[in-house]
User: Fold this.
Amino acid sequence: DTGVSQDPRHKITKRGQNVTFRCDPISEHNRLYWYRQTLGQGPEFLTYFQNEAQLEKSRLLSDRFSAERPKGSFSTLEIQRTEQGDSAMYLCASSFIRDTELWANVLTFGAGSRLTVL
Amino acid sequence: DAKTTQPNSMESNEEEPVHLPCNHSTISGTDYIHWYRQLPSQGPEYVIHGLTSNVNNRMASLAIAEDRKSSTLILHRATLRDAAVYYCILRGGGADGLTFGKGTHLIIQP
Assistant:
């Protein structure tokens, strides 16, 4: 098991372009989370999936952001018409959740994808 | 999620114990206390969690106050590799997902 993988690790783009990030979770994990982190701040929750169902989206996830997890395995996060304010580290995490231990489950994070919008 | 309060930064010497405090006075009875840390240029990493009793694992110990309104993460013998931002997070009720604050920036002096 290689942990949570994210690709690309770094992306530089021009304002107005679309970008897509991919996350491959730990294989047996049924939950997948996306976070955004700007310099000097803690990670901010964006959205999460249980298998292929997107169960919650943060208010931070504007209409320009869309996330998918089509087969309940890998996930993509797409940002359309990027703005300079989108520059951040995008973190993916996964966990295996049991109903009886909902708040005790542990998240495993990837190393993140750093986006720079020029 | 209920809020936590942590010092912005702490400094310790290598090979000495480190006690990282966290206040969570509005904790509810079902909230778990989780600690994660984030090393430079890496994603957050799970450290430990507990509900009521003190917990030990290979990385650290978690001491939970009897009234659960505060907790302390204990690194028994700090190394330079423990220099990181440490986040204390409550989980319970509401939606899933961790709510990170700014954490405590731990500096380890050689």
Notes: The mean pLDDT of chain A is 93. Chain A touches chain B through 25 residues (CB under 8 Å). The longest strand of chain A covers residues 88-95.
